[in-house]
Amino acid sequence: MQANYQGFDQLDSLSTSTSRDDKETEPKETPPHLVESEEGQSEEEKKWWEDQYIIAPGYEAKMESLIQGGEFDNRQSRTSVQPASNISIINAPIKMNPNLRCYVHQDEGNIKRFPRVKSDSTSGLLTYYAMDAASVLPVLALDLRMDETVLDLCAAPGGKSVAMLQTMYLGGLESNEPNKSRRQRLRSVFNSYVPASMMDSGVVNVSGEDGQELGDLQPNSYDKVLVDVPCTTDRQSALVPTNSIFNLYRVKERQNLPKLQRNLLCSALQAVKPGGDVVYSTCTLSRLQNDDVVENAISTCRSQYKIQANVVDLSPLTSALDKVFNFWKECTYGQLVLPGLKRNFGPMYFCKLRRIK
Question: Cβ neighbours of residue 41 under 8 Å, at least 6 residues apart?
Fold first, then answer.
């Protein structure tokens, strides 16, 4: 397996480092149906996004439809990307955790599946968790330290919680999921990957609170908070049209997403202790659900809750991983992974905020 896959090597503090650090959290099986477009296609026949996004049968038309619908605005190019005057971007070092092991295929463009996951002969737990490699980036951005208490505000299906536990640093993890069926799936994932002794000891707790209210219920309670919000899940929506959020009957739900996302991020900033960090993440390309939500939440928290938060610059982390992921350069506050033919990861947006007071 070492000959076929490359993993994250331990890095020292990532304050100015640009050394390479490969990323894949629980090794994810890349869907086998993702294939390149037809050979021999002329430049005139190519769609404008063909060199930027995964092309699969039927995906071209779907992508074109979504773009015309206003959710995919990557064609827009801003020559200058400046934060709002009242939002500061600060520098803070990130240290790679020595216990977290993440793997991707070594050769770019490899769409083969990883070996089927097996149970460990001693513990009976599954040996690795497969998911999109970009999904581990919010966990790395959290920069977990020894004995910290962490809240995963929107935890289901549980991959990011599993990755956080793999660091072996947590003093406590609250994995929250208000939806009953998704919470059951979360518990099932924990039963498959987390030792029963850890669950019984109270180190890991599963809750079902409304994430928008949890900040009021548990203010100033956690060292770190991950808020991986509900979003348009662009890859899933483009490839699996069944019940897609882009369907006409779900227009109102889609329009309300930025408000829900802002409320969840504000709740996370209430729940984290002053001096603690919040990482906000989505799996969409939409600026309305990414940078705009971050800016809106910072402003709302300042005016309504007297909470001040700064954006933490994550460019050292992305510089260390720029040979593994395609990062879009035009984000104002966070980082955005763009899926491509050779680097089939994402989309994944993530932004780190530090609560000052």
Answer: none
